[in-house]
Amino acid sequence: MKKTIFSTLAIATLIFASCSNDDDGVVVIDPDPNPDPQVVIEVPDTYSFERDGESTVNFPGQTQRILMGEELIASMLNFDTATAQSLLDMYANENTPFENEDLNASSRQLRNTVASSEDYFTSNNAEAATIRQFFADFLSAQIDEVFLAQNTAAAIGVAGQIADGGSTRYVNAKGLEYNQAVAKGFIGALMVDQIINNYISTTLLDEGTNREDNDNDVPRNDSGTDTQMEHFWDEAYGYVYGTSADLTNPNLTIGDDDSFLNKYIGRVEGDSDFAGIADNIFDAFVLGRAAIVAKDYDVRDEQTAILRELISQVVGIRAVYYLQQGKNGIEANDFGAAFHDLSEGFGFIYSLQFTRNPATNAPYFSGAEVQGFIDQLTAGNGFWDLTPAALDEMSETIASRFTFTVAQAGTVN
Question: Does the predicted model carry a pTM greater than 0.85?
Answer without folding.
Answer: yes
